[in-house]
Hints:
It contains three helices and nine strands, in the order H-E-E-E-E-E-H-E-E-E-E-H. The chain is of the alpha+beta class. The strands form three sheets. It has a four-stranded antiparallel beta sheet, with helices on one face. Strands 3-4-5 form a three-stranded antiparallel beta sheet, covered by helices on one side. It has a two-stranded antiparallel sheet with strand order 1-2.
Amino acid sequence: MTNSKLTKEQYLKSYRDAKARVMDGFNRRSKEHRDRESAFQKYFDEMLKISPDFELIKDERVDEFPIFVDGFPVERIPLKYFDLTIKYVGKLPEEHFRNRICIEVCEHYVNHRRSWRSTNEGYKVRTNIDYNESPYYKSGRTVAKKIIEHVETLFRQENLKKEREDINKRAYKELSDKFPYKFIRTNSRSLQPSTFVVENANQTHITLSYNYSPVKDVITFKVIKVEVPSNIGLENLVESLGKV
């Protein structure tokens, strides 16, 4: 009886000691998660003051801390926490992928010159837009403003692109109406999208550019190059150009 009781006491002591060690790690990890969640919530609340186009996504996770006695697991202590992400959920141009606008909240470590040591300055926030990381910021307002400005720029660029495409289509139609029996194509070898080539039946090519006046809403064309095949006779060429 004495040996059995002593064995039980030893077992309980080993269990209490093992649990105390595990609980130290459990409490440290639990505090880390609480600090991280608090930082995410803080920056998210600040972003909402700038725009409602942000969302805090919470995915529940569970870590287990096993307690071993004499090499055998006798208990597992679950630690529930949230894996957090802040996302921009507002409108974007169709051609822009949403995963190219990222918000990162993490502990910021600063390395000191002439020293291997680094200082943890706590949780800060930054943007990663089009794979370009910004500096760290102390305020979610700053990040929200940066992202909103970037999105507004994207929409301005999209509108300008659409306007250029519309004007280009209009210029092509005006050329087609002027020369209904000519083959007209966009000059794919030109870096200028406002360049067309008019092809004649005799294989002469006329390259045209155009300018658009938004004030008068008028398109004017300009000849920038005339290509003549070598088999056209000089006399015919001179005579034809003289009639221009």
